[in-house]
Amino acid sequence: MVIKTTATYVITSKTKRIVYHFYSRRLVLQVIIDDNVDGDSVNRDKGEKPSEHENLYNQWAWRCNIQKKSSGKLAGMKIAVKDCVAVAGVPMQAGCAGIVDYIPTYDAPFISTLLDEGAIIVGKTNLECFCMSPLSHTCCNGNVLNPFDIKRTTGGSSSGSAVAVATGEVEMSIGTDTGGSVRIPSNFCGLVGMKPTTGFLSTMGVTPCRPLLDTVGPLTKTIKNNAICLEVMAESNKKLKYIAGLYDYTSHLEDGVKNMKIAILKEGFEGANVDYEVVEVVRTCIDKLKQYKVTFAEINIPECKLARDLLASYSVVAREYLQNKLCNKGQLILKSEIKKHFVDQNKFSYSAIATSLVGYILSDEEGDRCFEKAEDVSHMLAAKFDKYLEEFDAICCPTIPMKAPLLPNNNEIFNQSPAEFNNPRIANITGHPALTVNCGFTSDGLPVGIMFTGKYYDEKTLYRIGRAVEKMSEN
Fold first, then answer.
1. Which site in 16, 46, 148, 183 is 20 to 30 Å from 154, CA atoms measured?
2. CA-CA distance, 55 to 167, in Å (whole number)?
3. What sign does the dihedral 453-217-273-418 (CA atoms) show?
């Protein structure tokens, strides 16, 4: 039985309110910048819409060129930012045609730290409408195409972020991950994608999808770039005095994996539409890691198959709860600044409309009961992962046990049942960090990823394992 507790703590300063909401043992951190604060947008060129020739895969929502410093850990590195993340002075639409002429007046905290370390932000990338699809076909600007096969999905919701890295236009991209939205497109585009421990980075300046599960993470081609990007992003925690330390990932990348123990999640290889060529590529990667004196053992966690339903429960019940408690009833969880520019909810994608409708139905008929049950099962699932992670350094499985599916038409949304996308969702439900890294390709040249899930705040170990996988492909 869940003991439901609700509490709100507010810390105020001259320019911001830091609000901690506790609901049913979960922490939601919001940092709300006052609307009259101009932030970093002073004298910043807002950029322009991308031209057709530079947007072959429809990856870009907006192009810009923002550089604050010429030195630092990321000096000269080009970065793309998902268009649900606030960059001061640059238009933001969150993939939804209903948002018009919204220009944030502040940078998300991790954006500020990236710029402080010399990064160059060269654009905002297209995404699924309000991040509510994994198939790269619901963005108001059109489908985002997979550079490995334009007939197939890029994955979502951080679709454009993945393409910008895969095509070599940027060294790193910033995405968000609520149900696999960093790792799914990273998988289908042959990239490294990290979902950090839930709550590790503040999601201030990020348009909420499912506030209890939302995380922010980097997409890159290499483990080193991914690690240094997260390391820099984490510096924002020091400014917020949110979480201290735990930021040194890059100095341990070459420590190796000798004598590590990794569990193989049996349920991660199962499903009605599993592609056994993909499974074989992942199994081959596991066999190669054994040559590095890594010990593997298979484990069973049947509750993992519930991740899809649990995510839906958080999507429609927790979101509805937070709408009613944190905002005026019936309004979206958007900062008041954005609400002024939200003109037409009829311009939602089908997937966003479906989520909202089911949310209202469940809220009316079930109240908090469905959400509380989901919380019970989620904590049980997290406890099982914790138990195995006492014995093992990480748990592995295919990121997605199938090839990138063909792009659906928008009116086919209700025929698409991405049950095979279940694996990435598990870490969102439990809150553990999870890393996907490319481990090979199918016979028709499509990327295959392997995913490693680790202990809370132990991203360092996941990067060490990912580096070992990366080195195998280099040899």
1. 46
2. 11
3. positive
User: 24, 133, 136, 157: which is the annotated catalytic residue?
Assistant: 157
Helix, coil or strand: residue 139: coil
Sign (positive or negative) of CA dihedral 315, 416, 424, 127: negative
> Mapping DSSP to helix (H, G, I), strand (E, B) and coil, where does residue 146 land?
strand
Q: Are 205 and 104 in contact (CB under 8 A)?
A: yes
Q: For residue range 230-259, what is the model confidence (pLDDT) as tens digits?
A: 999 998 876 655 554 557 899 999 999 999
Q: Residues 133, 159, 181, 363: which is the catalytic one?
A: 181
Q: Of residues 82, 221, 224, 335, which has the active-site annotation? A: 82
Q: Is 432 helix (H, G, I), strand (E, B) or coil?
A: coil
Instruction: Identify the DSSP state of 409.
Output: P
157 is catalytic: yes
How far is it, in rounded angstroms, from Cα 33 to Cα 36? 8
pLDDT in tens, 43-63: 688 899 999 999 999 999 999
Cα(293)–Cα(389) distance, integer angstroms: 19
Output the pTM of the full model: 0.88
Active-site residue, 82 included: yes
Task: Please report which residue ranges of 367-458 form alpha helices under DSSP H.
Answer: 369-391, 422-430
